[in-house]
Amino acid sequence: MKLQLFDTFERKVRPFEPLSNNHVGIYACGPTVYNFAHIGNLRTYLFEDLLVRVLKANGYDVNHVMNITDVGHLTSDADTGEDKMELGTRRTGMTAWELASFYTEAFQRDMQRLNILAPDQWCKATDHIKEQIDFVSDLEQKGYTYRTSDGIYFDSRKLNNYGHLARLDIDGLQAGARVELGERRFVTDFALWKFSPVDEERQMEWDSPWGKGFPGWHIECSAMSARYLGDFFDIHCGGEDHIPIHHTNEIAQTQASRGTQLANFWMHGYFLKTDKEKMSKSTGDFLTLDVVEEKGFAPLDYRYFCFTAHYRSQLSFSWESLASAQTALGRLYEAAWSWGEPGEIHEQFLQRFNDCLNDDLNVPRALAVVWELVKSGVPDDVKKATLLACDEVLGLDISDWQPVELRIPDEVRLLVEGREQARAEKNWQKADELRDQVIKLGFSIEDTREGAKISRS
Q1: Separation of alpha carbons 135 and 192, rounded Å
Q2: Considering the entire predicted model, what is its pTM?
Q3: Do the Cβ atoms of 39 and 292 come closer than 8 Å?
Q4: pLDDT, tens digit, 9 for 90 and up, residues 3-20
Q5: How far is CA 420 from the centre of its chain?
Q6: Given its phi and psi angles, is residue 395 left (phi above 0), alpha (psi -120 to 50 degrees) or beta?
Q7: Most exposed: 96, 214, 255, 280, by fewest CB within 10 Å?
Q8: pLDDT tens digits along 363-410
Q9: 46: exposed, middle or buried (C-beta count within 10 Å: 0-12, 13-18, 19+)?
Q10: In 320-341, which positions are buried (b, 16+ CB within 10 angstroms) versus exposed (e)?
């Protein structure tokens, strides 16, 4: 099966063809680095990592660009409230620059722990102020902007198809607007450049043709994607929450300036839910990867858990479901370890696995093929080679796994030896009593042909 992907812009699965020979340009909306990433954020980056790996498995040369938002993302989608970075400085006592560096490094560590491939290009908003000013200037020259007392705004009504990505009901939004418009002319207009408040000192501000200030959140992605991927590239990714505002506004300003919809495919990962609510940093109550590890789970357990659902379906999180994923991944590791050295790849199984992923990244179905392989009568060395080939895309580090050496206390070892002697003498009552003592000490015994196998209970 040739690769086909769901395009949010067209609202359908379409065959994927690169715009330029074998090269694929991907832009992924990265984190706003004012706090730690929560595991809901990280699910989106796992989906994007799967996409990159599938593209590479199809033989494409991928140029993956990810931004770091370290200025301009306000607390309100209505372009009001504080810059999230400035807010973070008061919470932590760091400077805005220290805050950005600290949380960028924390995010990159999370990516490494989840075995997410690093992008080919990181780009920070604060490193590309000139590109953003130039982009806004171009929009101004083409008549798409207006000035208010607090900034330069994009006039969304000058585009006939504004909001197509999200299928927005523009008239309904205006009629039922709950946000205060302020000096904005229309509810869907958005800030391109914000002026520094006269009554407060900002840590991040720059001179511009319109006065001292800072860029809006949306303009950074249009400007930086154009810098590294051109005015029209293959795939733009992000979370489903980006569809109605952030990505809609990226498309609008790029259409006005460059005459394109920015990307040929728009792809979005869906939310992680906990207790029937979207995982969000805004409440201050969210789960990080550190919390997951404190609960006794490995980051790759969470990676496997995320792969149990399609990226376009919302996934409900619970510790029980994560434990099930941990058990499944552990069995996969142990099976692969027991198979010894790899042999030849089973091409039919591998093709079925790849076909599932080429069907809009259907990783749950691909995992079903993996488990069919594990339980099949295929020779162990062939299973091993085929599973390792699948893991080039799954990224579960199966080849690197080794069983942890179990440290058995002398007291337990002596009890087991005594039980073995009792069994040899057919003293079953004593053998059972010794087994019960072993269990009380936190261990279990499995009788095998090679003798008693001891493990943690």
Answers
A1: 9
A2: 0.88
A3: yes
A4: 999 999 999 999 999 999
A5: 51
A6: left
A7: 280
A8: 999 999 999 999 999 999 999 999 999 999 999 999 999 887 767 888
A9: buried
A10: eebeebbebbeebbebbeebee
Q: Please tell me the distance from the alpha carbon of residue 304 to that of residue 326, in angstroms, as a whole number.
A: 8
How far apart, in Å, are the Cα atoms of 245 and each of 35, 226, 341, 390?
22, 19, 51, 37
For residue 353, the one-letter residue type is F
Q: How many residues does the chain have?
A: 457
